[in-house]
Amino acid sequence: MIKIKIYGLGGQGAVTMGKVLCIAYSIYENKFAKTMPAYGHERKGGAVLTDVIADKERILTNSFITDPECIIILDPNVSAEEVKLDVEKNKDAVLILNTDVIKQDYASEFSQCWYTDATRYSLEQVGKNLPNVGMMGALAKVGLIGLEAVESAVKDYFGKSAESYLRIIKEGYDGTQKR
Question: What whole-number distance in Å separates Cα of residue 36 and Cα of residue 73?
Fold first, then answer.
């Protein structure tokens, strides 16, 4: 079972990322997958949390993840307290940050910390802050999903507008580094 928790702010695509990952896991990696989003105030800039579960077996749980294996941070302004609670429950969790320089004090508590500048890639390609796309490339680089599965799911989800997103995924994949 793969359990991923995605933290972000409204408008950064955390919920969309969960949906696209479910397509990638279920259709292109032959796994069962589900996503469970949670919203703060439903407005741009409000806190957003999305959980994704993928497994070879049917997923019978219908609740949020309490012990994620991977935590993805789409914005450096996400509350450190929430993230610290997650790492306390699973010391082997992998952290993937959208940043060019790791500044988060909690990053050292994770077994692995990866980072990429997904915001820069999306601003350069589409002129919008959509870090979710580059972070899917980072997730593939870490090895929790296949790059081809993510690319195929993005094509399915975004249709004709997928071309620039595919470039962002590639940049996210190539630019991901391990601390």
Answer: 16
